[in-house]
């Protein structure tokens, strides 16, 4: 159990199989642990392998620092595996095992895998790990600063981002449903515009005078009705065929999927006792489904056969009625001239009436998909608000505790880089200076406001808000009016914008404008701030002068170690000695293999500290004489 009164996570043990540190097996204590040794003995490798095991990789995919860490892991693990034993703040012990290319496997204290338990996003356990010189990277890159703030959220922002990512995937699938519906609606709407004109022409063709006017008008009306009856049966047949096709063979397809996913080698393999019952239950379900759907399909087939019979009867009736129609037209010379044109218009009229019906159905489907989309977008917005509130609270706590020298703030959705890059990808038109237009728009309005402007057709609002000229606004509207572009624009993510500042002579300056040393002196106190997570750093003293290490870093370590575990790889003797390290690991290497030469408290490893970190006893003595201490 934790020895401190303050509950916190800690790493208890590290074991490595394979690679440069083959056979390494070390146990960490609570408080401060220091790893020392000459260059090339594996200190950095230990730090990065612990990071790898607890799935705390730096940055985003493709980030240069992440790539560098991945290269270190690949080169030094060499196909082996790393295992860390952890203890959560609640006193529960787990072992995490990981090989390159695989996800971490979490096991309980008895070595049994714990199904469904993940270390990603820090919901069960999190360690704050920094590579060499990473403090400088944090000071320069906003996404690293957000990661630094998020580490104090006890996994809450990780949970939010996981849910948001899942929602974005669902919204993307929603767009795949929406686009064909919008395309069909556009096509149908365009065709149906013809309907009023045809109705007007048909009205004009009706005879209004003469002894035969009523008979001729009625004959044409009945002919049009017969065409609609034929179309109605044809449409019903299509619907029945679609329903039958949808249901037919579902059980067979289910069985085919079962056979594909659970081949024979699984059914007779080492897990046959578990896989077998699963396959049996699925097969029984497929059989029941097939049996039920066979009955339903039989109903559809019976209805279709009856419809064929009824259609034949109706066709016979229509044939006699058509003969009577021809007789009426032939007996009235005044109607013959325009009969063919009137009949063709009536058929087109009926065709468009059925398209109007289809439009209503497709519109209904679109409204359902759109309602689901709005619900998901609202939830996505809520998650953004929730994440900001968590970060804002953390920033306020940090400013209160570290101020006035250090100030931390977060602006909701203040980072518009992804928005600008998205627009640049769309505006590849030299004539309108697409990159300039993208920057003006992204700096002036958020994505959803831009979507509203385009949907409302408000070009003037775009010109006024973003400072575009007429030509730019026209091209932007043309591009963004495409349905796929508008839908994609709705889920462009705006990340929060952090601001970490150092007060110098009464004036606050952002970390990106500071010197290397100032950057580190700004970021390190935040790292050392109260947290339940183990703090693991490769050479925290980099770019810091000795006076700062002694006066600030060591003092912070001594204060924090009572309620937090720290593991540092270091070349600075002040850290293990004046920080009163609970455990020092002295690393050495021979024959391309790193190992622990000695381990113990500071007194046990005193000679190694003097030799490795002070330059040897003679150098230590000479400095003492020169400085006359």
Summary tags:
5-stranded antiparallel sheet; 3 domains; single chain
Radius of gyration (CA) equals 37 Å
Domain module count: 3
The dominant shape is elongated
Helix count from the secondary structure assignment: 22
Largest sheet: 6 strands, mixed
Gross CATH architecture of the largest domain: 3-Layer(aba) Sandwich
Indicate the percent of residues in helices.
55-70%
Strand content: 5-15%
Quaternary state reads single chain
CATH class of the largest domain: Alpha Beta
CATH-assigned fold name of the largest domain: Rossmann fold
Within CATH, the superfamily of the largest domain carries the name P-loop containing nucleotide triphosphate hydrolases
Summing up helix and strand content along with how strands pair, one would put the structural category as alpha/beta
Give the distance, in angstroms, between the N- and C-terminal Cα atoms.
Answer: 43 Å
Largest sheet: spatial strand order:
7-11-12-3-13-14
Number of strands: 14
Q: What integer is the average pLDDT?
A: 88
Low-confidence stretches: none
């Amino acid at each position: 159990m934790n020895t401190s009164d303050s509950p916190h996570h800690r790493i208890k043990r590290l074991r490595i199989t394979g690679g440069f540190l083959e056979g390494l097996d070390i146990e960490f204590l609570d408080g401060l642990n220091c790893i020392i040794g000459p260059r090339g003995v594996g200190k950095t490798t230990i730090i990065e392998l612990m990071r790898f095991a607890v799935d705390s990789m730096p940055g985003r995919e493709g980030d240069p620092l992440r790539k560098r860490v991945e290269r270190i892991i690949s080169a030094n693990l060499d196909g082996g595996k790393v295992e860390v034993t952890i203890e959560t703040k609640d006193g529960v012990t787990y072992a995490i095992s990981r090989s390159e290319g695989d996800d971490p496997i979490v096991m309980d204290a008895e070595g049994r895998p714990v199904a469904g338990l993940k270390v990603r996003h820090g919901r069960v356990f999190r360690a704050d790990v920094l590579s060499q010189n990473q403090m400088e990277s944090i000071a320069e890159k906003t996404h690293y600063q957000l990661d630094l703030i998020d580490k104090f959220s006890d996994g809450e922002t990780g949970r939010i981002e996981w849910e948001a990512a899942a929602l974005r995937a669902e919204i993307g699938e929603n767009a795949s449903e929406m686009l064909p519906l919008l395309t069909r609606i556009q096509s149908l709407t365009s065709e149906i515009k013809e309907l009023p004109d045809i109705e007007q022409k048909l009205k004009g063709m009706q005879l209004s005078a003469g002894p035969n006017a009523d008979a001729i008008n009625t004959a044409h009306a009945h002919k049009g009705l017969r065409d609609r009856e034929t179309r109605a049966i044809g449409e019903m047949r299509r619907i029945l065929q679609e329903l039958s096709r949808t249901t037919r063979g579902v059980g067979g397809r289910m069985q085919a999927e079962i056979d594909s996913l659970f081949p024979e080698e699984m059914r007779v393999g080492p897990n046959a006792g578990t896989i077998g019952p699963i396959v049996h239950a699925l097969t029984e379900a497929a059989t029941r489904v097939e049996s039920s759907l066979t009955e339903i399909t039989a109903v559809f087939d019976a209805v279709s056969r009856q419809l064929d019979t009824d259609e034949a009867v109706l066709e016979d009736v229509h044939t006699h009625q058509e003969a009577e129609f021809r007789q009426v037209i032939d007996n009235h010379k005044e109607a013959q001239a325009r009969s063919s044109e009137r009949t063709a218009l009536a058929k087109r009229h009926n065709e468009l009436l059925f398209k109007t019906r289809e439009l209503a159905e497709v519109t209904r489907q679109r409204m359902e998909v759109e309602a689901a989309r709005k619900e998901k977008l609202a939830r996505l917005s809520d998650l953004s608000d929730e994440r900001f509130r968590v970060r804002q609270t953390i920033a306020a706590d940090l400013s209160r505790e570290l101020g006035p020298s250090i100030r931390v703030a977060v602006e909701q959705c203040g980072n518009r880089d992804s928005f600008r890059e998205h627009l640049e990808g769309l505006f590849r038109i030299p004539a309108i200076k697409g990159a300039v237009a993208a920057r003006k728009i992204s700096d002036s309005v958020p994505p959803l406001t831009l979507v509203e402007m385009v949907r409302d057709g408000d070009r003037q609002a775009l010109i006024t808000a973003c400072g575009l000229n007429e030509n730019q606004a026209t091209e932007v509207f043309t591009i963004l009016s495409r349905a796929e572009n508008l839908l994609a624009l709705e889920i462009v993510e705006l990340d929060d914008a952090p601001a970490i500042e150092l007060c110098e002579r009464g004036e606050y300056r952002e970390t990106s404008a500071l010197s290397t040393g100032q950057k580190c002196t700004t970021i390190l106190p935040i790292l050392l701030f109260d947290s339940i997570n183990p703090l693991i750093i490769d050479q925290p003293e980099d770019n810091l002068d000795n006076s700062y290490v002694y006066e600030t870093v060591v003092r912070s370590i001594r204060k924090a170690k009572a309620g937090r575990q720290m593991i540092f790889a270091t070349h600075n003797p002040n850290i293990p000695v004046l920080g009163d390290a609970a455990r020092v690991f002295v690393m050495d290497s021979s024959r391309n293999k790193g190992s622990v030469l000695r381990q113990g408290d500071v007194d046990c490893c005193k000679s190694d500290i003097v030799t490795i970190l002070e330059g040897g006893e003679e150098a230590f003595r000479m400095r003492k004489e020169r400085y006359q201490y």
